[in-house]
């Protein structure tokens, strides 16, 4: 636990909170620990703390922006792919407390588990100290990303991020990209890249650089006409859920309108 505290640059007064933040439910169940506590409640709290901190950073960084663009920026910053990236930078996989079966199945590297542990750590630091301390820790991860973040148009054109977010909504896998072919002389080279989910090739893309080819491949997957069936079903389900939520919220009468 000492190494984790060094990485976080924070010393826990209650190291039990740190251990809880790193404990997956599989460890509790597999070891039949009576009254054992996993990291799910801390994840719930950390998620809320993270949202508030990132909202504060964005509010200060973009004083002229309206709620809509700010919400889009926040959604991109607190998305699972970015949380996983931060968790990987911190080396969290090494410290996750998992059941033997979960670890053998690659649980330490599952995006959902890494993102959950990061949010749980934020919640644990908040409980062990105060909001300002949690703010300082989270800010050192997110301020550079807030400064580099583009606007909503940049996000819409970032097909790789959009594809990864879509797939990771209910799957542990992440899309991977492989260079299939290089065509032409060095000064005028064309790269052909495939995007895969496990062993399944989802699409191909071509571009004058590997990054451009990867974006093209992800864009091809997200194209409604060429999107794989399982993703079409996923996007339809998401749209249905959003429509139902809109119906519910549209039917809510604001409290200040009840007596009118």
Describe the 3D structure.
By secondary structure, this protein is mainly α. The chain has two domains: 2-149, Ribonuclease iii, N-terminal Endonuclease Domain, Chain A (Orthogonal Bundle), CATH 1.10.1520.10; 160-250, Double Stranded RNA Binding Domain. The chain is 60% helix and 9% strand. The protein contains 13 helices and three strands. It has helices spanning 2-8, 15-21, 25-30, 40-61, 67-77, 80-90, 100-104, 111-128, 131-148, 152-157, 159-167, 210-222, 229-250, and strands at 176-183, 190-197, 200-207. The chain has a three-stranded antiparallel β-sheet with strand order 1-2-3. A hairpin with a 6-residue loop joins β1 (176-183) and β2. It is globular and about 60 Å long. It starts with a helix and ends in a 10-residue tail after the last helix. The model is unreliable at 237-242 and 252-260 (pLDDT under 50).
Low-pLDDT regions: 237-242, 252-260
CATH superfamily of the largest domain: Ribonuclease III domain
The CATH architecture classification of the largest domain is Orthogonal Bundle
| Name of the top-level CATH class of the largest domain | Mainly Alpha
The shape, in one word, is: globular
**Count, helices:** 13
Biggest sheet, open or closed, and with what strands and sense? 3 strands, antiparallel
The ordered string of helix (H) and strand (E) elements is: HHHHHHHHHHHEEEHH
Strand order of the largest sheet: 1-2-3
The percentage helix is 55-70%
Strand portion, in percent? Answer: 5-15%
Could you say what the CATH topology of the largest domain is called?
Ribonuclease iii, N-terminal Endonuclease Domain, Chain A
Gap from first CA to last CA: 58 Å
Radius of gyration: 21 Å
Overall mean pLDDT stands at 84
Integer tally of domains: 2
The secondary-structure class comes to mainly alpha
Query: How many strand elements?
Result: 3
């Amino acid at each position: 636990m000492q190494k984790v505290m060094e990485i976080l640059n924070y010393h826990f007064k209650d190291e039990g909170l740190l251990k809880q933040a790193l404990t997956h439910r599989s460890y509790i169940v597999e070891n039949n620990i009576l009254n054992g506590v996993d990291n799910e409640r801390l994840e719930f709290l950390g998620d809320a703390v993270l949202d508030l901190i990132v909202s504060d950073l964005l509010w200060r960084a973009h004083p002229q922006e309206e709620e809509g663009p700010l919400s889009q920026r926040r959604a991109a910053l607190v998305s699972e792919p970015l949380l996983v990236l931060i968790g990987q930078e911190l080396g969290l996989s090494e410290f996750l407390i998992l059941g033997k079966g979960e670890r053998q199945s690659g649980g330490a590297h599952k995006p959902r588990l890494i993102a959950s542990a990061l949010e749980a750590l934020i919640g644990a630091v908040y409980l062990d100290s105060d909001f300002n301390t949690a703010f300082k820790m989270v800010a050192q991860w997110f301020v550079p990303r807030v400064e580099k973040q583009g606007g909503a148009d940049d996000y819409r054109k970032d097909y790789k991020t959009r594809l990864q977010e879509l797939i990771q909504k209910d799957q542990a896998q992440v899309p991977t990209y492989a260079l299939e072919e290089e065509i032409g002389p060095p000064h005028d080279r064309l790269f052909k890249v495939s995007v895969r989910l496990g062993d399944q090739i989802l699409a191909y893309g071509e571009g004058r650089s590997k990054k451009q080819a990867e974006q093209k491949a992800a864009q091809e997957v997200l194209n409604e006409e060429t999107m794989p069936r399982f993703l079409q079903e996923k996007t339809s389900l998401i749209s249905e859920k959003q429509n139902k939520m809109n119906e519910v919220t549209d039917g809510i009468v604001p409290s200040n309108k009840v007596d009118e």
